[in-house]
Design goal:
Blueprint: E1 2-6, H1 11-22, E2 26-31, E3 46-49, H2 55-61, E4 67-70, H3 77-82, H4 84-104, E5 109-115, H5 138-157, E6 161-166, E7 169-170, H6 183-193, E8 198-200, E9 206-207, E10 210-211, H7 212-224, E11 233-236, E12 242-243, H8 244-255, E13 262-264, H9 279-285, H10 293-305
Parallel strand pairs: 1-2, 1-4, 2-3, 4-5, 5-6, 6-11, 7-10, 8-13
Antiparallel strand pairs: 9-12
Helix pairs in contact: 1-7, 2-4, 4-5, 6-8, 6-10, 8-10
Length: about 325
């Protein structure tokens, strides 16, 4: 099997590359390295530094490909508010380019990263896939539109596609030095340095934090599934409710030291509450999380403590 992983030098993408190689697949990666790191890409994969908005490049890289795992995105809510045009061009125009190239190359399936952010501030919990999208940021809006684009493309041209709505993914290789870093790597680095973590709001907001190994497992299930069943989108998460304050305490416990957090005003575009319903993912893919939130936090802290991020930034992990 020949696979193309977009954003394959990034946090989730690089784990997908490893999983595909372990299955004996040939893997091609495209990444513009705006947030990914070449050091994260397994040496057995073919890494091409480039942009999914580059139509000739995307067309060439799609040749001979059996499956696309599409992870490339401008994937930060604050970044999308600062640069909405960039979010639109990469997340939607880039995805359109990939779909056209995949159709023309007769790719067998197109599996792509969607986001729990499309649910926005809808108060219904747990979040089921048939809830109407209610995005409250440009990033979330592009992900909701991406799902419609892929669904319409699949219906019109017969390319099997499935969106995986990730819920707050964390784990090794998540970069705390990125200007738009997610909360877990930032707080792990702060805890290892004995510094205070910053909480936006009072910390009562909830999330369905999902260890990256669970996301990789879902993608591999989508690779193996009957292609005729790949349509729409499914939630990929742990299925639990963790408050931001509980996350802070879990990281402190894993590090072995507690530093009181610093509270600042809430950020625009952040969801107050989130939890995934996994019934559809279970029925369609057979998916269930294999790594708990607590075990995921322990593994993540161990990776940073061992200096896993030092290849990118010697000050990233702390001591």
């Amino acid at each position: 099997m020949q696979a193309l992983v977009t954003g394959g030098a990034g946090f989730i993408g690089s784990h997908l590359v490893d999983a595909l190689l372990a299955r004996g697949a040939k893997v091609r990666v495209i990444d513009d390295l705006s947030s990914g790191h070449p050091e994260s890409v397994h040496p057995d994969a073919e890494l091409v530094v480039g942009d999914i908005r580059d139509v000739p490049l995307v067309t060439r890289l799609m040749e001979g490909v059996d499956v696309v795992l599409h992870e490339a995105a401008r994937n930060s809510i604050p970044r999308s508010l600062k640069d909405p045009k960039g979010a639109f061009e990469v997340n939607l125009v880039g995805t359109y380019n990939l779909l056209i190239a995949a159709r023309d190359a007769r790719v067998g399936r197109f599996v792509y990263a969607s986001s729990s952010s499309i649910y926005g501030d809808n108060p219904v919990l747990p979040r089921q896939e048939d809830l109407l999208p209610s995005p409250v940021s440009m990033y979330a809006g592009t992900k909701a539109a991406m799902e419609d684009l892929c669904a319409g493309f699949s219906a019109a041209f017969g390319l099997p596609s499935l969106g995986l709505r990730y819920f707050n993914v964390f784990g090794p290789r998540q970069d705390p030095a990125n200007p738009y870093a997610a909360v877990v790597p930032l707080w792990v680095r702060a805890a290892l340095r004995g510094e205070a973590a910053t909480i936006f709001g009072d910390g009562s907001q909830t999330r369905d934090f999902t260890f990256v190994e669970n996301v990789v497992r879902a993608n591999m299930m989508a690779v193996d599934a009957d292609a005729t069943r790949l349509k729409g989108a499914v939630n990929i998460a742990t299925g639990g409710i963790i408050t931001v304050l509980e996350l802070h305490r879990a990281i402190a416990d894993a590090v072995g030291a507690y530093v009181p957090p610093r509270h600042v005003p809430p950020r625009p575009g952040d969801q107050p509450f989130s939890q995934a319903d996994l019934d559809r993912a279970r029925a369609l893919l057979g998916f269930a999380p294999s790594v708990s939130f607590q075990e995921g936090i322990r593994r993540t802290v161990a990776w940073y403590r061992a200096g896993g991020a030092d290849a990118w930034d010697p000050s990233a992990a702390g001591t």
